[in-house]
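Hey,

Quick one before I head out. I ran the complex with iron/sulfur cluster overnight. Inputs first:
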Amino acid sequence: MRLYVEGHGCSMAQAETGAIKGHALASGFHLSEAKDADFLVINTCAVKEKTEFKMLRRIRALSKIASENNSRLIVFGCLPKVNPSIIDEVAPGVIMVGPDLEGLSRALGIKEERFSPLVPQVRPNANVEIMPIASGCTNFCTFCGTKLARGNIRSHSPAQLRARLESSLRDTREFWLTGQDTGAYGLDNGSSLPELLSELLSVEGEFRVRIGMMNPHHLRRIYTELVPLFRDRRLYRFLHIPVQAGSDRVLSLMRRGYTSTQFIALVSRLREDVPGITIATDIIVGFPSETEKEFGETMALIREVEPDVVNISRFGARLGTKAAAMEGQLPGSVLKERSRKLTSLCREISMRQNARMMGKTEIAFFSEVGPKGNFVGRTSNYKPIVVGENLLGKFAEVEVLAAFPTYLHGTVAASRHAHGNKDTGAVSADGFPDGQGTAGSRSCPGPAPTLPLNMRSTRMAPLFVP
Ligand code: SF4
């Protein structure tokens, strides 16, 4: 049997698309082009209205291919949970399955399997292992359609996740821990994110771990146990903590569970305790009834916190959410104007932050090819740095030559594919731990220099290249 799989959405959805392919291959399917397939699966995202329109265009196109070739289309993922009727409008009678592998296994007629760290995965990027640590969350944010699709938190066990990391170390060195809210990890199985990280960082070897998005109120809860773990240089000094708005009235309408003062205090404490940490956040502009003055509070918060990365969204009502029914829905022109103002402020801040990296030397792990054929690595604080040399899958010492709002440009000081120093992450010229080789001494041993950073996005990190 032949299967065509197309994936869209967040890091978690990318990993699940990879697991669908892995499980299908292990169950005897062959992957093929859409026109040659017996089954076509599209893994959909429903996070925003704009995304929904894109999904519907793809579903319509694939439905046409399926009917022309007498094959079956399965619409999988978040959209069947958030807005099934609209799918039925564009592709009547299509098979719909929520984001669960058992349901899809039944539809494909193969052995039922749950998404877990034990399911084989075809990686979207061979150099990065995306590890969903949990699905769902503990919040009920009033604007969020994802909650309708993913429900409450279900965490995978630390033992399974450790086994996954150890087995993947054979051929990759970068691990993304992802979920709807990594801060809520373990609330359902008696574990916690700091406990999981300690388990993973107890594995010997040179690799990097990136922590995915978490709700600020969970970060406040696990702060004391989490922050000391950043001393291990294999943990990227990076946190993605969506604040969403600067007005406390709007934050309470969103049911976010913290105030702007608490968020500002959290970030300044983080910057003190983890020098050079990268702070990424998200903002929704134009939440129902948000006044011009309250939008001003968002701008003020951004000026005060100076986040390195800001993902800006215009509010869009998601079917079935409380916010969709709220009074005071704002016109598109207001959303557009607020997003324009905020974008230019954030770009200014990112450029200022990045310029502070100039002349610094970092150890970076290279995992991506840039849009213009150069190569993209991530510094110890997960800052994207572009070089011309093909160093995919390797660590290299790079010097920062130029800074742009969303990335750095660098030159390779020394390249390695070797084990490094667990504490400094440094890799010496001859591959021995820090201080035994020539280059090691230049790669930031001890406390990190203050290196505020910026990246385009943490979810999937496409980069600009000049
Ligand atoms: S924390 Fe809020 S925004 Fe995030 S997935 Fe849960 S309900 Fe949605």
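The pocket of iron/sulfur cluster is lined by residues 137, 139-141, 144, 146-147, 180-181, 215 (CB under 6 Å).

Talk tomorrow,
K.
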